[in-house]
Design goal:
The protein has 536 residues and is of the alpha/beta class. The protein is built from 24 helices and 10 strands. It has 4 domains: 2-127, Response regulator (Rossmann fold); 178-316, Reverse transcriptase/Diguanylate cyclase domain (Alpha-Beta Plaits), CATH 3.30.70.270; 324-428; 431-533, Arc Repressor Mutant, subunit A (Orthogonal Bundle), CATH 1.10.10.60. The strands form 2 sheets. Strands 2-1-3-4-5 form a 5-stranded parallel β-sheet, sandwiched between helices. A 5-stranded mixed β-sheet has the order 7-8-6-9-10, with helices on both faces. A hairpin with a 3-residue loop joins β7 (221-226) and β8 (230-237). α13 (342-355) crosses α14 (359-380). Keywords: DNA-binding, Phosphoprotein, Transcription, Transcription regulation. It comes from Paenibacillus phyllosphaerae. GO terms for molecular function: DNA-binding transcription factor activity; sequence-specific DNA binding.
Length: 536
């Protein structure tokens, strides 16, 4: 919308200009007036006009003086001056403020319209030029950011650009990158699970990138994706990274915690030391990658500083020699006796981490060896590892596919505890105790969902073995016992209360009323409603 301001001290001429020309046809939607130069200056500040038609000679402030002030604030405004004097000096002054035209009164409508069209055309051309310029600047900035990112990525990951300091400085200057300041690097390693495909991984990476860019947007930080499921956050400041840098790192850690819960992924963050030169970024990358690799020992979900890695390594290396074969034998002996093995297992894994350059592979091999020897000893006493802890082959596959030592430790601890618990019960002949424990659970929790797997986990037995001992002792399966129990409770409620049938079903553990009615009729040869009617 083009806005026009008419500045004229003659009332008749001012009103004539405002009312006797069809400004809408010329594309002008707002027309305001001022009665002298001072009033015109105030009106211009208020409405920011695109075009001003002004008399030259006015009391208080001339049109030329007014234009000189307005041009300081709004240089894009177009001026059309009118005067009853053909004064060369006034014409020169008008040209100095880049007037579009200088018209001699009385104004001719055709001449004024022609000048207005010229002014609006200039405005349109300038607007289009400005849009094109802004687009070029935007494209340049986008391309510059891309080139900056690629340059830094190569510098960080390969260190290639850092070999020639002079060339590095020239490239950095060309890309408007500062060589001065302090740098710190954070590497975020992600694990989306074995079931996610390439496209899903890409989408999830974009979610994480967006979260990190949002956190870093108002800070001196640049977020970049590199090969694999890894993201780099480069921190740069002109002063040593103190509280502000610590806060940025803490914000990144908290942001990753939140986004990992949202998209169900695992993460690890490694942070380098502080460096003062751009050519040290490759070293910073090595440090942060090493810190992130500690996930193997610590598990995912941690933030590790490179400086802290050396402290922990120095402490660990003080440990004395450790006989792994003897430790495995002792663990198996504890399991066969039915005793607690968790502390010894942790000690074994810890010692293996200390003495091995590749602890994950060594821990996997060690745990497989542990279960292989355990399986042999169980077979010697007529027992079977499969019956107590699930199929042995699947156990080994889970160990091999584990990506961190804590994952292996959790799996091994759970399996060994299950076997030890079984051996303890066998030694004490407490199968009856287990059956009583199962019966207690069923009688107290029949209102809730109950599965064979959930029961077996609570008594540290495999589902298959629990099913066998329960059937041997009770002459009925667990599912049949639970069904009879629930229907017995349902009959009591139908007989003694006025709850609706579906409410009764829910109260005895059947969330689906149709399924409840089907089960009830199969066992009782009548529907729940028919059973209730017998007692009315």
């Amino acid at each position: 919308m083009v806005k026009l301001l008419i500045v004229e001290d003659n009332d008749f001429e001012r009103h004539a200009l405002q009312n006797y020309i069809d400004w809408d046809v010329l594309g002008i939607r707002q027309v305001e007036t001022a009665y002298n130069g001072l009033d015109g200056l105030e009106k211009a500040k208020a409405i920011v006009p695109d075009i001003i038609i002004s008399d030259v000679m006015m009391p208080g402030m001339s049109g030329i003086e007014m234009a000189q002030y307005i041009m300081k604030f709004f240089p894009q405004t177009k001026f059309i001056f009118s005067s009853g004097h053909e004064d060369v000096r006034l014409l020169q002054e008008a040209m100095e403020v880049r007037a579009c035209s200088y018209l001699i009164k009385p104004l001719k409508q055709e001449e004024l319209i022609s000048v207005i069209k010229k002014a609006t055309s200039m405005l349109v051309d300038e607007k289009l030029t400005s849009i094109a310029h802004n687009k070029m600047v935007e494209q340049f900035n986008d391309n510059l950011r891309y080139l900056q990112t690629k340059f830094l990525e190569e510098l960080i990951v390969t260190g290639k650009n850092a070999r020639d300091m002079k060339s590095l400085s020239m490239h950095a200057n060309d890309l408007k990158l500062s060589m001065i300041g302090m740098y710190k690097l954070a590497v975020v390693e992600l694990d989306f699970g074995v079931e996610s495909d390439l496209f899903q991984n890409t989408n999830l990476l974009h979610v994480v990138m967006h979260q990190l860019e949002r956190i870093s947007s108002s800070k001196h930080a640049l977020v970049m994706k590199i090969s694999g499921n890894r993201i780099i956050v480069l921190l740069h400041t002109l002063v040593p990274v103190g509280e502000e840098g610590t806060k940025i790192i803490a914000d990144i850690a908290e942001g990753m915690r939140l986004v990992s819960e949202e998209i169900n992924c695992k993460y690890m963050i490694g942070v380098s030391d502080l460096f003062a030169n751009l050519d040290d970024l490759h070293q910073a990358f090595k440090q942060s990658s090493f810190a992130a690799s500690r996930k193997v020992k610590l598990g995912y979900g941690h933030l590790v500083h490179y400086s802290g890695c050396h402290d922990s390594e120095a402490i660990s290396l003080q440990a004395g020699p450790y006989d792994l074969q003897a430790a495995i034998a002792q663990l198996i002996d504890l399991v066969m006796k039915g005793e607690n093995v968790e502390d010894e297992l942790r000690k074994l894994v810890h010692e293996l981490q200390v003495i091995s350059d590749h602890p994950l592979v060594r821990v996997q091999s060690l745990i497989i060896l542990l279960f292989s020897n355990l399986s042999k000893q169980l077979a010697d006493v007529g027992e079977n590892l499969d019956r107590m802890a699930g199929e042995e082959r699947e156990l080994y596959e889970q160990i091999i596919s584990a990506k961190t030592i804590p994952d292996i430790l959790q799996l091994a601890s759970k399996t060994l505890t299950s076997v030890a618990s079984y051996m303890c019960r066998k030694k004490q002949n407490k199968d009856d105790y287990i059956i009583n424990e199962i019966l207690t659970i069923l009688n107290q929790e029949y209102r809730h969902p109950i599965t064979l797997s959930s029961l077996s986990e609570r008594v540290y037995l495999s589902p298959n073995y629990l099913r066998i001992i329960f059937k041997n002792k009770m002459r009925i399966s667990i599912q049949e016992y639970l069904t009879n129990l629930r229907l017995s409770k349902a009959k009591e409620l139908l007989k003694e209360t006025r709850y609706k049938v579906h409410e009764v079903g829910e109260m005895v553990g059947y969330e689906n009323s149709t399924y409840f009615s089907i089960v009830f009729k199969n066992y009782m040869k009548m529907t729940p409603g028919e059973y209730r009617n017998k007692f009315k």
